[in-house]
Design goal:
Shape of chain A: elongated
Helix content of chain A: 25-40%
Shape of chain B: flat
Distance between the termini of chain B: 13 Å
Structural class of chain B: mainly alpha
Distance between the termini of chain A: 39 Å
Strand order of the largest sheet of chain A: 3-2-29-28
Oligomer: heterodimer
Strand content of chain A: 25-35%
Largest sheet of chain B: none
Structural class of chain A: alpha+beta
Number of strands of chain B: 0
Number of strands of chain A: 30
Radius of gyration of chain B: 24 Å
Helix content of chain B: over 70%
Number of helices of chain A: 11
Number of helices of chain B: 14
Radius of gyration of chain A: 37 Å
Strand content of chain B: under 5%
Chain lengths: 577, 326
Amino acid sequence: MIMSKIIKGLQEPLRAILGDRLALIGLAVLLSIVAMALFAPFLSTHAPLAVNEREEGSLMVRSVQGEQVRWELAPALGERTLNDAHYVDGVGMAVGNAGVVWRFENGEWTLQDNTLTETLNAVAINAEGDALAVGENGAMALWRDQQWHAIETPTAVNLLGVAWSNPDVAMVVGESETLWQLTWQDDDLDINVLESPVDRGVTLNAAAVDTDESVWVVGERGLVLRLTPEGDVLRERLPTNRGLNHIHLAANGAGLVVGERGTILTRESIDSEWLAATSPDSRAMRAGWITEEGEAFAVGRSGIILERQGDNWVLATTEEERHLRAMMVTADGYYAIGSDRFVNRLAPPSSEHWFGTDHLGRDLFSQNVHGSRIALLVGFLGAVLVVLIGANVGLIAGYFRGRTETVLMRTVDVMYGIPFEPFALILVLLFEPSLFIVILAVSLLTWRTVARLIRSQVLSLRERPFVKAARVAGASDLRIMYLHIFPNVMPLVFLELAIIVGVSIIAEATLSFLGLGPPQSISWGGILHNARLSGAWRDAWWWNLPPGLFIMMTVLSVFFISRSLELVANPRLRARR
Amino acid sequence: MSSRRSYLIRRVIHGVMALFIIATLLFFLFRLGLPDPTAALITEGLNPEERERIRASFGLDRPIWMQYFIYLGNVLQGDFGYSFHYRAPVADIIWERLGNTMILMLPAIVLAYAVGAPLGAWLSWRRGSRADTSGIFVGLMFRSAPMFWTGMIAILVFSIGLGWLPTSGMRTLPYEASGFFDKIFTLDFLHHLILPALIVALYYLGSPLLIMRNTMLEVYGEDFIEMARAKGLPERRILYAHAARNALLPVVTQLAVTIGLAAGGQVVVEVVFSWPGLGREILNSVRTSDFPLAQASFLVMAAFVVTLNLLVDILYTMLDPRVSFK
């Protein structure tokens, strides 16, 4: 009985929605947003609050404007980390993960074909233009006659450094004190495995050739070895015990060694002492470069670039936080090269992140998808609560009249005196922000309109003959109210339900935007709150735009639906010809 | 006539009672949520005697019903206490902020209604046409877009992108005002006002537009319109002189209600545009746990709403002779 009445009451609004084009569009949009909320975990491409990282062949270029030295990000060299770079006589090379090799010539970088797919850790070019690249698991390749030749190696050890002592002899170093001397005679290669004088399995990180064709090798725990042209391995002492990451020697014998905890050592020529410099930064330096003129640079993680100015080292200001791994100085340019995986902050929309990322590198598409959940939850729960309270108050007040009506309607009057946003603010001041408070604030302050409207309808309905007939037939008050009068105010109830869904969604977004939403939850208003708080919203349009569009689309679709319901509740609005 | 007067007197009494109930609710809500409202003050390393002195100065050493009557007495005398944050009388702060809010909201609301109502009337005349549909669409669109979002986008486009208008605040700093009128009648101030006022106006536009349109549609069914048609009056005259006049009542009502809510209704606009109004003040007072300021701001806003609602009722009795004074 009661079900059939309700179904009958539902029929007319439903027919109204299906008959109106705008309402139908609204319904379709609303349903797809509901679907988005339901299937949010499947639709989102990333975990919404997970920090996303990426790697790329970052390239930073130095420019001088007046007194100001600036390092600026140039277009990246591919999507792979570049680990080392070398430059000799107009030709440069940078090698990186997945075997990528970039060639630098005449100011242009070009990607070279390479058969290797292993991570390449180091590269060195010799006077004849041949290059040797070494990498993980004993990967090694020789660039000669304009192509790469893979080289079989004795063991699959990680190789970390390479240097040519002359055009036919190269030195390769790596983990576990690997020291290989490679000698070419015509096209035959001989690999000579040298014994280390230390023999404690220390990792050797880099190698560089000196003016007397001896090769310097640096490694962990401050270990420094020198290989004489005669094939002897000598242990050298430098004034440090810190791990050393990189060595670079200029053609005139000027030298630079960098290492952990801001370690920097320099020497002026082959005959002078290695001296420790005071570093302005105590983080690890990954690589360095020194020129014949004595210009010296050291680079490290988080975009650190140190430059020598006179006797001092100064920290250059770089805005980007790429992790730099190599330094290269050419005839007329200075390049810092990287980058390890770094946090993908404020990335514009791409195929990886459809709506870009926020200031913490979190995927905004996934956040927007998940944001629909809170919006709809508060929207529908709030509206149902409001209509439940409002309709019942209106029904009771309108039906019973008298003192009941006075008390209820005076309460409604008081509710009308309370402004919404400030009231919600006060609630949050007094209690902790939570989803419950948000729904409470929304529903406490919107039922007043519903109550007034329903009451005025009920006032006229209760005087109708069918109500009187029911009363004469002995129906109870409850029965008359809910079975006879209520179905007649159903169109109005649905209308109010739809309007209040829209109002609640905006209210929730507003509270979240003001930072009063439940913490740790994702909502459209909250995304905009973060954007504003971070200050990045002024540049990151991809951060601002989607949440507002989603709010607008959702509320608009609800309003379209409510408009066709309005025609049911108030037939006089129907357009007449 | 006497029924009308007694009705008005009854309405005033109801309004005062509503305010009294709100003030009472507010008092107990605050006591419930913040048993010791001086907690925010006391964290600053005060010794116990000083703490007691402050508590006594707020009357917190007395029983709660005494506190309640002291509070009511103070409010009646316009004494809202002392702000923790500004270390100044709350009343002074509130009046200044309220003024700032109103000079933003009033022009915006008036603009919205001045444009929205005639537009709504015109749309109703063209009902069912493409203009009608798109008019409703645009009105509803601005109604659906949250103001903080449209505000941010407007700042992005007009202030940061094009550089036409200032991004925030009421005037270029530093500024020394010599008087209230000097404060608002400057080009610099108007320059700052345009963007926030426009955003508020666009948001409110939909409401007079739709109300006017819908009421007009109802009015078209009335006999006197048929009569006017029968007399052969031009459509335009029927529309504006006969129908619109009768459809204006709900719009005027909504206008008064909107102005009432304006005192504190649009916190977000003031936040986005850094407008030093009452709405932003109540948010700040919530953030700094400045309970005297929060409590008083809220009460002033509520008083505004109640007063304007009362005005609506009085207006109704004057504009619509059909209203019964039961």
